[in-house]
């Protein structure tokens, strides 16, 4: 609020200091926001805006949220395009044919990026995110398995999917919603994700597919997709079970093509039937948009694609939703053209370098050890050392101390097999600069000093800082 000096009057005696009063401003009635009842009266637009905006101030700052893989920074031009297309319904292709064509172009671009056999005739669609994309891919795997079983005169009971216990929760939802057994391979010391040597134990003739994760949400590591496919080749040779692979590339499918071009993980591997990714992660678009692509039309059963006559126009649709704003597709089309291969490589390389530098700095602090170092996804997991745990420190205490400085750093136990191991995780995205990384590292050092000082009664060294503890 601005302030002005009250005007002096000729008859007023000089005063030691001018009186200060608020400047005139139009009164905006306060808004009461009931929490358990529908509002009865209408309110002034600005008053409602201010009330909601004030409440949102209590949320964390998205740029300091190192828990999320979601994009938190976009260029002004991309934001403007999202605003200008927010009122367009993506499914109304008859009224908005250009947006529909942009979606198809994005599918073809991704098909080219992921080495589909015929990108010009790519089979795929946009989704609300990788969760929906995973559901669609899982349904296609299940339906293809059912078709093969029926053609062979066999039953279609008790289908299963094989994945590591580090799989994203959307796959557990898929199995629950669509009656598929989730065979999740437990983690083990030295094995933080699915590896090929365990597949034979979990796969059988009822396995509809194996889920390979290109970028685990728990630690940022890539699963060895090519090795998984090779192991499945061996299983087919030994048992006759032809088991396809779906690559959950929610993050990695928009990183590996630019930073790891020689890595075999995509449609270059004949066993890979489908791939999903999140445009709102390393695709540089605000939440939420995802993409699901299939190797070719044969990989997506035609019976799952619905032909709809909508408002006088015909369209094909395969989705779990219907009405959806076109703004995210427009923004994705913008980012693909704005950055191209060279630009996305530059952005992701900057993120990976920042992640690796920050990981190295954390490793230099005597209280922490790395599980991963940001050399695959620009994300990594780390934990307190056994020595720090023995002194009574815990990862949750570090996370809470960092939150006091505005940083959101998740602390959580690893999945089945290593559930006694707690970790902290940092995700580096565009907008998390080397300067912010340096500030984070200093705050982490100080947080460790605070937590150690409040917990133990002996000196603890944290990097170059000698902790003065409370006796």
Description:
- With 471 residues, the protein is of the alpha/beta class.
- It is built from 12 helices and 17 strands.
- A 7-stranded mixed β-sheet has the order 3-9-8-7-6-4-5, sandwiched between helices.
- The longest helix is centred in the C-terminal third of the chain and has 37 residues, at 327-363.
- The radius of gyration is 27 Å and the shape is globular.
Mean pLDDT: 88
Instruction: Give the SSE string.
Output: EEHHHEHEHEHEHEHEEEEHEEHHEEHEE
Order of strands, main sheet, comes to 3-9-8-7-6-4-5
Beginning-to-end CA distance, first to last residue: 47 Å
Q: Strand tally, please?
A: 17
Largest sheet: 7 strands, mixed
Global structural class: alpha/beta
Shape: globular
Weakly predicted, low-confidence segments: 1-25, 456-471
Strand content: 15-25%
> If helices are DSSP runs of H or I spanning 4 or more residues, what is the number of helices?
12
Radius of gyration: 27 Å
Helix content: 25-40%
């Amino acid at each position: 609020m601005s302030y002005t000096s009250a005007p002096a009057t000729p008859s007023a005696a000089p005063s030691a200091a001018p009186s200060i009063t608020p400047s005139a401003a139009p009164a905006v009635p306060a808004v009461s926001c009931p929490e358990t009842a529908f509002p009865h009266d209408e309110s002034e637009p600005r008053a409602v805006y201010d009330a909601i905006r004030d409440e949102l101030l209590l949320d964390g700052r998205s740029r300091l949220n190192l828990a999320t893989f979601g994009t938190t920074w976009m260029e002004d031009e991309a934001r403007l395009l999202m605003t200008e297309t927010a009122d367009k319904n993506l499914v109304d292709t008859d009224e908005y044919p250009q947006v529909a064509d942009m979606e198809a172009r994005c599918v073809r671009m991704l098909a080219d990026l992921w080495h589909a056999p015929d990108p010009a005739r790519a089979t795929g669609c946009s989704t609300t995110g990788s969760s929906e994309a995973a559901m669609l891919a899982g349904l296609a795997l299940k339906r293809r398995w059912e078709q093969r079983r029926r053609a062979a005169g066999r039953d279609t009971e008790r289908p299963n999917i094989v994945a590591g216990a580090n799989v994203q929760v959307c796959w557990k939802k898929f199995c629950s919603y669509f009656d598929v057994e989730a065979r999740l391979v437990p983690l083990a010391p030295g094995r933080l994700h699915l590896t090929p040597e365990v597949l034979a134990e979990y796969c059988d003739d009822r396995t509809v597919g194996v889920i390979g994760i290109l970028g685990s949400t728990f630690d940022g590591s890539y699963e060895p997709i090519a090795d998984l496919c090779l192991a499945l080749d061996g299983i087919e040779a030994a048992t006759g079970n032809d088991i396809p692979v779906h690559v959950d590339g929610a993050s990695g499918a928009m990183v590996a093509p630019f930073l790891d071009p020689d890595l075999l993980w995509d449609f270059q591997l004949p066993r890979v039937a489908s791939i999903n990714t999140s445009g709102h992660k390393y695709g540089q678009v605000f939440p939420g948009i995802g993409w699901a692509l299939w190797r070719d039309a044969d990989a997506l059963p035609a019976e799952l694609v619905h032909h709809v006559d909508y408002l006088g126009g015909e369209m094909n649709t395969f989705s779990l939703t219907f009405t959806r704003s076109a703004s995210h597709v427009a923004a994705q089309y913008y980012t693909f053209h704005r950055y191209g291969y060279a630009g996305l490589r530059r952005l992701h390389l900057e993120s990976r370098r920042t992640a690796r530098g920050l990981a190295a700095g954390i490793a230099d602090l005597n209280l922490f050890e790395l599980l991963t170092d940001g050399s695959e996804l620009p994300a990594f997991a780390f934990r307190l050392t056994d020595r720090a745990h023995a002194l009574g420190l815990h990862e949750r205490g570090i996370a809470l101390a960092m939150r006091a400085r505005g940083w959101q750093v998740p602390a959580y136990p690893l999945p089945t097999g290593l559930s006694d191991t707690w970790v902290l995780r940092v995700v580096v995205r565009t907008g998390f600069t080397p300067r912010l990384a340096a500030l984070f590292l200093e705050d982490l050092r100080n947080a460790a000093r605070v937590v150690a000082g409040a917990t133990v009664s002996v000196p603890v060294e944290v990097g170059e800082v000698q902790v003065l503890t409370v006796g």
